[in-house]
Please model this.
Amino acid sequence: MPDNRRFLLKRRPDGAPAEQDFDLVTEDTPALNDGEFLIRNHYASLDPAIRGWMDDAESYMPPIPLGAPVRATTIGVVEDSKADGFEKGQWVMGLNGIEEYSVGTLGGFTQPIDPAMVPEVTNFLSLFGAVGMTAYFGLFEVCKPGKGDTVLVSGAAGAVGSIVGQLAKIHGCRTVGIAGGPEKCARLKDRYGFDAVIDYRGKDVDALSKAIGEAAPDGVDVIFENVGGDILDAGLNNINRHARIGLCGLISEYNSDAVGARNIWQLIVHRASITGLLVADYVERFGEGAQAMAPWAADGRIKIDEHIDEGIENAYDAFMRLFSGSNQGKMILKLA
Ligand code: NAP
Model:
């Protein structure tokens, strides 16, 4: 059996994850029991949510156990099988770990995928996976924008945010994107078609509020919130009556104490709502989302950007890009 390099969680991070919180070990690939199959992982999805799973805190998922591989969605190829319906050579996707080989179980979270259905197999981790579905269902089911509405997106150059902006544009909305740095802001306009952009770096709540006010002179009808903290507070200062805020993520708080929303008084003033969203609630409808977005990807109205780093030995650095902002699109680690 081949060796299996695995990226393990050694201790729970205190604030920003340190390299010493993880271990890269080489183990034997396990022998299969009946009902199991061996997956050669080709790609792992690096998601901000993984940071939350490293904490010993109550969430929608149990914490990653210490000594276990860092949990991640992977796509790979069945290398060996003792499970009916999983044949050697078949592509599969599932919630596994950052490791070169995972063992799948019949009835578990790993399912066959058909690479012929997407331009690139990695698109199952971006537009046609949880990221794209978060954008699609989060925008249309939670935020419910009307044509002509102004939609404010934070984390707008990222995997989810860039798709939200493009979907809102297709829907006939005016889009305002917030991202870090001039390069990303230029990309928001040139590549994703945002009508107005804001570089949040170096701006406090007042400066951000002013910048949003200038970018959205008629106010904001929808906020798709990926970041939280000052950015959410500044958005709240600019909402219109009956604005809808879809709370998708709070990445600015994942490595530090929660700041919370300090301007929620504005929800009362404007009879607005804020709703948390979790993509897992829409799993049964992923096919619907994929069908809706496939033509837009095919005709170029949705650009799919993936940032693929290579090698399990680079797992830590690749993961930390999500927090430094040095990822340009959906962060993926190539394992084979
Ligand atoms: P991503 O946006 O591709 O990457 C993370 C980006 O967040 C970075 O590139 C960086 O962009 C920005 N960022 C990091 N730290 C920040 C900080 N302290 N302040 C401001 N911006 C910061 O990641 P993603 O996968 O698309 O995820 C985006 C958000 O969606 C996350 O909050 C994630 O948890 C959430 N999410 C939620 C669900 C759900 O079901 N609720 C599903 C998927 C994702 P800049 O360079 O612009 O700073």
About this structure: The longest helix spans residues 130-143. Residues 47-49, 130-131, 134, 155, 157-161, 179-180, 184, 226-227, 248-249, 251-252, 277-279, 322-323, 325, 327, 331 surround NAP (CB under 6 Å). The mean pLDDT is 97. The chain has nine helices and 15 strands.
